[in-house]
Amino acid sequence: MAKRDHAQVCAEFCTHPEILDKVKPEMPDEERLYDLAELFKVFGDTTRIRILYVLFESEMCVCDIAELLNMTQSAISHQLRVLKQARLVRSRREGKTVFYALDDDHVRTIIGQGMEHLEESHGRRKKHEEDL
Amino acid sequence: MAKRDHAQVCAEFCTHPEILDKVKPEMPDEERLYDLAELFKVFGDTTRIRILYVLFESEMCVCDIAELLNMTQSAISHQLRVLKQARLVRSRREGKTVFYALDDDHVRTIIGQGMEHLEESHGRRKKHEEDL
DNA sequence: CAAACATATGAACATCTGTTCATGTGTTAG
DNA sequence: CTAACACATGAACAGATGTTCATATGTTTG
């Protein structure tokens, strides 16, 4: 039961049945799409991105990261938990300190592609800075 | 002025100066990291992910997408605006209808890598479902 | 055991985000 | 021009999110 009330949301000649029928079976299950969005949410925060960048260079303990990013130990710890739950980092205990490291090479690719996109779309953005 | 008050946030022997000095210059500017996080925020929503998946198959008009995803035309339009501002989709007018299409091939790579990560980390997750 | 330290975590709070609802804009047909 | 339609958008509201603060857990040292 599609939501077509207000006017009539596209007459029949607008919704192209061939396309709809072709696209529908290609869609992954809702659960996969949900998990995927959840994963990208993890990348969608400056603090977590900065943490990942820091870990590109070397494994590191919590307080090192906190100092590097000039943030509270608590804030960093909370975010490391999010990154760990997303399987993007792993932790290793050594005495009192806990070392965190990247746990997946897809991270580099994803962030790299994100950066490339920024470069490229920035290049394209010339004379129409704001086109809302 | 790093925030080291509560206890002392890691004694000097914990924060490894060599590592800090090595990592610091490798960090991109704050602005780039902010933009990157903003970009991934766009991927961090089920509706937008579903829209992108739909556009993988074919360019499409707003009401087609709304019908496919069984959502309001308004909701879809709002999200298309977000995707367009992030330069992930472009639009083309043809009479009354507006067609949207992917505007960047990095999108496929990024989503593909995200999916791969899910497969892989799902595989690794065996006997420790919840390890908060 | 107690003290010191590195890290983890729960609650609270302010901010951000996505959808809905109502309405505005741009285009075509009559 | 007017009506109908496809789409865009502003305001508002509920739900999600990140940081802070206080405190708990786990480890080493004496």
Q: What's the helical proportion of residues of chain A? A: 55-70%
**Span between N and C termini of chain A?**
32 Å
Strand share of the residues of chain A? 5-15%
Count of DSSP E strands of chain A? 3
Mean pLDDT of chain A: 85
* Overall form of chain A: elongated
> How would you spell out the order of helices and strands of chain A?
HHHEHHEEH
Rounded to an integer in angstroms, the radius of gyration calculated over CA atoms of chain A is: 21 Å
Task: Give the oligomeric state.
Answer: homodimer
Q: Largest contact between protein chains?
A: A-B, 73 and 73 residues
Number of DSSP helical runs of chain A: 6
Main sheet record of chain A = 3 strands, antiparallel
List the helices and strands and how they pair.
Two copies of one chain form a homodimer.
Chain A: H1 17-23, H2 30-43, H3 46-57, E1 60-61, H4 62-69, H5 73-85, E2 89-94, E3 97-102, H6 106-124
Antiparallel strand pairs in A: 1-3, 2-3
Helix pairs in contact in A: 4-5
The structure holds a DNA duplex (30 and 30 nucleotides).
Which key terms come to mind for this protein?
homodimer, 132 residues, mainly alpha, three-stranded antiparallel β-sheet, 6 helices, disordered C terminus, DNA-binding
Tell me what the structure shows.
- Two copies of one chain form a homodimer.
- Chain A is mainly alpha-helical and 132 residues long.
- Helix content of chain A is 55%, strand content 11%.
- Chain A contains six helices and three strands.
- Chain A has helices at residues 17-23, 30-43, 46-57, 62-69, 73-85, 106-124; strands at residues 60-61, 89-94, 97-102.
- A three-stranded antiparallel β-sheet of chain A has the order 1-3-2.
- In chain A, strand 2 and strand 3 (97-102) form a beta hairpin.
- In chain A, helix 4 (62-69) packs across helix 5 (73-85).
- The radius of gyration of chain A is 21 Å and the shape is elongated.
- The two termini of chain A are 32 Å apart.
- Residues 1-7 and 127-132 of chain A have low confidence and may be disordered.
- Chains A and B meet through helix 1, helix 2, helix 3, strand 1 and helix 4 of A and helix 1, helix 2, helix 3, strand 1 and helix 4 of B.
- Chain A binds a DNA duplex (30 and 30 nucleotides) through residues 6-11, 14, 41, 45, 47, 61-63, 71-81, 93, 95-98, 132.
